[in-house]
Amino acid sequence: MGTNVIIYAGTNKLPAGLFKGTEVFVEDYEIYAMYQGQCMAFENLPSMEKRAFLNEYLLDKEGQKFIKEKLGITGFESAFKQWLFCKFGDMDGDPDYFDGKITPDKYNSVCTRKDCPGRGVFCGQASGLKSRDVETLHEFVTGYPVKQIADHLSLSTAAVKSRVEKLKEKMEASNGAALAAKAVALGIQPL
Questions:
Q1: Of the candidates 13, 54, 21, 53, which has an alpha carbon nearest to the alpha carbon of residue 37?
Q2: Which of 64, 85, 97, 132 is the residue whose CA sits 20 to 30 A from 57?
Q3: pLDDT tens digits for range 19-43
Q4: SS3 128
Q5: CB within 8 A of 81, min separation 6: which ones?
Q6: Residues near 42 by Cβ (< 8 Å), separated by ≥ 6?
Q7: What b/e string do you get for 74-95 counting C-beta neighbours within 10 Å, with b at 16 or more?
Q8: Running DSSP on this structure, what letter comes out for residue 112?
């Protein structure tokens, strides 16, 4: 099984979940966990670790309602797996479960559904990014000039500049470099 763990090979920037806590992530729509430096299927986690995620799911009434009403998933196991996917799908630099606290991904870049009603709401509660924001950031982090980004997005350069300015404000970034760094920290990579 290939994972995005290999992007950290040879660096000291391994996701914290590799060594402490439990990192949950998705690879080819299957849910896996990094637990004590071992990669395993989520189902193979020790029961106390799985239970922590299950308890968090049971407390997340809004998330359960979203999955049932907006995504049409009603079975308990299927809904729980969807919740894991939406909340924890991307492997990031922070552990998802550490010292008894669960911290979902700020932005789940595993999901490519631009039409999902939860995009930037359910899977990105902390960042509140909308589909067009994510689309713009995917292009922005490439470092391409605004004109080229505008061409890729079929927008005017003025529209792209406006989006970038609004994103800097929304993400509290003082300049373009800070915006790109924050986007990458959320898991937004060039497509």
A1: 21
A2: 132
A3: 667 888 888 788 988 888 788 999 9
A4: coil
A5: 31
A6: 24, 31, 32, 33, 50, 84
A7: eeeeebbbbbbbbbbbbbbeeb
A8: -
